[in-house]
Every structure is written in C-alpha cells, then in structure tokens.
Amino acid sequence: MNILIKSAHIIDPGSPNNGKVMDILIENGIITSITGVITPKKNVKIIESENLHVSAGWLDMQVNFCDPGFEHKEDLSSGIRAAIAGGFTGVAVVSSTNPPIHSKAEVEYIKNKTADSIVDVCPIGTLSYRQEGKDISEMYDMHQAGAVAFSDDKKAINDAGLLMRALLYSQNFGGIIMTHCDDKSISPEGKMNEGVTSTMLGLKGVPSLAEEMMVNRNIFLAEYTNAPVHISNVSTRKSVALIKQAKAAGLKITASVNAYNIALDETALISFDSNYKLNPPLRTKEDIEALRKGIADGTIDAITSDHRPQDIESKDVEFDHAANGMIGLESAFGLINTYKEKIKLETIIQTLTTNPRNILKLPQPKIAEGERANITLFDPDAEWIFDKRYIQSKSANTPFLGAKFKGKVIGIVNKGQFKSNI
Predict the structure, then answer these.
(1) Chain centroid to CA 32: how far?
(2) Domain termination site, one of 339, 360, 381
(3) Domain membership of residue 410 as a residue range
(4) Alpha carbon of 390 to those of 54, 74, 360: distances in Å?
(5) Which of 26, 261, 296, 407 is the most exposed place for a label (fewest CB within 10 A)?
(6) Number of domains in the chain
(7) What was the pLDDT predicted at 36?
(8) Same domain, yes or no, for 277 and 407?
(9) Are the C-beta atoms of residues 61 and 304 closer than 8 Å to each other?
(10) Could you tell me the CATH number of the domain that includes residue 42?
(11) What pLDDT is recorded for position 169?
C-alpha cells in the first residue's frame, strides 16, 4: 500500500523535519518523500485530518495479552486490536501467561503468531524459572529466540542473590532486567495505598516503604554488578528521589510509570469500584506530583499502559477478592495527555517512542526519507468520550467508561500497512 499523509505536524527529534508541517509519502513501506506539498498519484491512500500530528510509532513496554493460557481474558489478536486503537505500533508483552514465558518455546510461539501483524509484539521472558523466584530462567535461549528483556512481571524478586546472579549473567549477552518493587513482607495482603483513606475504608494498606526499600536494594545491586536495571511501576515520590539520585551518580538505572499513577489518587477507591484496584496501588496527590515532575525532568524514562485484562468473574466480586489491574491500551494517550499538567507534549512522545526502545535496545524509527515508515498519527487537542465502542480488548475492566479525554489517536502506519481509528 502506498500512503500519502497530508499536512502533518512532525514531532520527531531525530528527524530534520521536527516541528515542521509537511506531506509524507510512503511507498512500499518506505518514506520516499517529505516536503511541503506532494501531489497524490494514482493508487495512493490519502490520510488527512484536522490538526494532524505524527511521531515515530509508540511502543508500550508493559502489556499483558494473557496468551497462552488465559485467552478468555485476552489473546494475541484482540490485544493487537487494542494496541492499534491506542496508537501503538509496538508492545512488549509480560511473562505472566500459562505457562509463563520461561523458555524459547513460548517466545517463539508469540513471535510466530504475530509475525504478520502491523503491531510489533516483543516477548519479555521470565527472570526466574516459571516465575517461581528460585532459579534463573533460560535467559540466553530466550534472548536468542527474540525475548527483549527479562522480568517476573508483578512478582517481585525477593531473593537478592538471585537478582544479583541474573544481572551478572545477563551482561554476557546484553540482556535487560526489569524489576517490580514490592516487599511483600511489608505489604502482606495489602489492597490499596496505606494512609488516611485506607484507614477510613477499612482496607489493608500497601505502604510506600514496601516499594522504596526494594527500589533502594535494586539500585545497590545495579551499582555492585555494574549492570543496567529497569525499575517498572514506580509509584511513590521517594522512589522518584532514589532513582534521580542513582542516575546522578552515573548508575545504569531506567524507570517507568503506569499512566493511571499520574492521573488518579487513592481517593478514587472511596467508591469501592474494583476497577481501581491496581498494583502498584493509586497513591497520594503528592506522589502524583512527584511522578509528573520525574517525567518532566527525565528521571522517569517511559510511561506504560500496564494493560491488564480481567474477566468479569475476576472483577465483579467483593473488593478484597477482586484481581488487580485495568485495561489501558485504548485509553493510554488520552489519559496521559489529559493529566500531563506541565509536561510538554514532546516529552510525552519521547516516553512513548525513543526512551522505551533505547531501554529495550530496539531499532529507532525515524520520520525521514529512506526510513521504514513506523508512525503514529494523532490529534493532541481533540476531545472525546471514552465509551464501549473504543474497547477492542476482550475484557472491559476500566473505570474510565464515560470519561472525557483530550488527545485522540487517528491511526498507525507500520510494515507497509495503515490502520485507522477514524
């Protein structure tokens, strides 16, 4: 398919056309011309829209597609449709499947099943065998098969020695370790952020300390092993401060935050809506302010949707028994852009494009002539209501139905294909 994108405001610091409004011609998947006005030829798909912006294709480095094993919640096909709706040309899928992504067989299953998709689906292998937290997984074999990183997802590595050995071993082949920080000995059976609201609601709390102690421990391990460590799911102001200090000391630390943690605070749980039951939990307004500042100053490198489909049987139960998580791909940009406060749009785009690919050591798409087209099209000022017609996931566990967002995805271009959300 040949594609002509008309009058697009380009946001791409790596492109000589950054900040310009240009026409972009894509032929056989390659950007062949970028100039002020291009006259369309025959057999060209023309894309034009009011206030059209384009950037390199967005990549979400933390989504759960539940496949294999939990296909009743999501499968690779429905997850890809959700990614398209959210404007993502790439996703990194976490290892919490059944069986977990703990060997090259699961990595190859995901790679082979999604090879022809417009969305690049990148498997994250487990750090420990079957996510059991005891023995290192077959990291090298998974790396050779196409795993982009290693993590036990939301199961924190309690054994510091195991994480240390994984960090040392992964350096032999350039593997990336991603860590979730939550010391369960401090937060057993916690349901929400520990504080005034949890006390008022009578719910067991998750202290900030549980995250911060493990963030600090993992920073020490990164220093000792001289290995890169990615800290996922950052949610507290002290975690941001610890990461900022570690970066200033020259340690190889990167970090990401989930979109909902920069938008919502703990008081949302007053309704006892189980769609607000999340891991990490919603924190305080002060934590949100620190996370936003961390994004603005570069302490936080990436923003993720933390897309976690759950079926109705897992959510429509008593709050204490409900599963954690919400779907997030379809609403991610609207949520981030609506609640970004003083964060520049260019910074938001960087957290969705350049930074995630740098962390995962993936090729960087550029909006430049001769480059393969990997592009997200969007309108940062469009206001819209998020309703059921925008949900492409098999699950609908989101508290945002009926919410008004600012910033709408128009479509994506990748692998010579175009998918529209108009």
Answers:
(1) 30
(2) 360
(3) 2-54+368-420
(4) 21, 16, 29
(5) 296
(6) 2
(7) 94
(8) no
(9) yes
(10) 2.30.40.10
(11) 98
Measured CA to CA in angstroms, residue 400 lies from 257, 302, 387, 404 at distances of 19, 22, 8, 9
What is the Cα–Cα distance from 338 to 327, expressed in whole angstroms? 17
Give every CB contact of residue 128 below 8 A, 6+ residues apart in sequence. Answer: 134, 135, 136, 137, 152, 157, 162, 166
In 6-138, alpha helices (H): 76-86, 104-113
- Exposure b/e, 385-420, CB count within 10 A at least 16 = b: ebeeebbbbbbbbbbbeebebbbbbbbbbbebbbbe
3-state secondary structure (DSSP) of residue 73: coil
Positions marked catalytic: 306
Spatial distance between the Cα atoms of 2 and 42, rounded to a whole number of angstroms: 9
CB 335 within 8 A of CB 260: yes
Report how far residue 328's alpha carbon sits from residue 405's, in angstroms, rounded to the nearest whole number.
13
Residues 181 and 261 in one domain: yes
Question: 212 and 183, same structural domain?
Answer: yes
Taking the chain (422 residues) in consecutive chunks of 10 residues, what is each chunk's mean pLDDT?
Answer: 95 91 97 94 92 98 98 98 98 98 98 98 98 97 98 97 98 97 95 97 97 98 98 98 98 98 97 97 98 98 98 95 98 97 96 98 96 98 96 97 97 96 77
